[in-house]
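Can anyone check this?
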Amino acid sequence: MFDSRVGVEATVYVVDPDGGAPRRLSPKANGDSVPTWSRDGKWIYVSSQERDGVDIYKIPLQGADPKLVAKAPMIIGNAKASEDRRLYYAKGDGKVEIRVVSITGAKTTR
C-alpha cells in the first residue's frame, strides 16, 4: 500500500502480496494520502483533503465507497488503529491534540 503524489494531488494504491500492477484504492484523484492498515487487514485508513480540512476515512481493501471516521479541520500524519477498536490521530491548527475515535463510529475524545 502506498500513496502517489503529483503536486498537491494524492491517490492511494494497493499491490497484491504476490505482486502485479498497483490497484487504485482511492475513489477520488485529488486528496487521499498517508494510508494505514486496520488491525484486521480489511480496511485502509486514509487522510483525505476536503474543502473544510483534512478528514479520516476508511476504505475496504477490496475497494468501495469510503466511510467517514473522523472529521477535523486538520489531521496531522497517519492515523493508528489499536487492538481495542480505536483509532488514534493528531489534530492541530496551531495547537496539536491527540484524538481517539471508536472505529465503530462512536464519539471522538481527546
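Reply from J.R.: I decoded it. DSSP finds no helices and ten strands in the chain.
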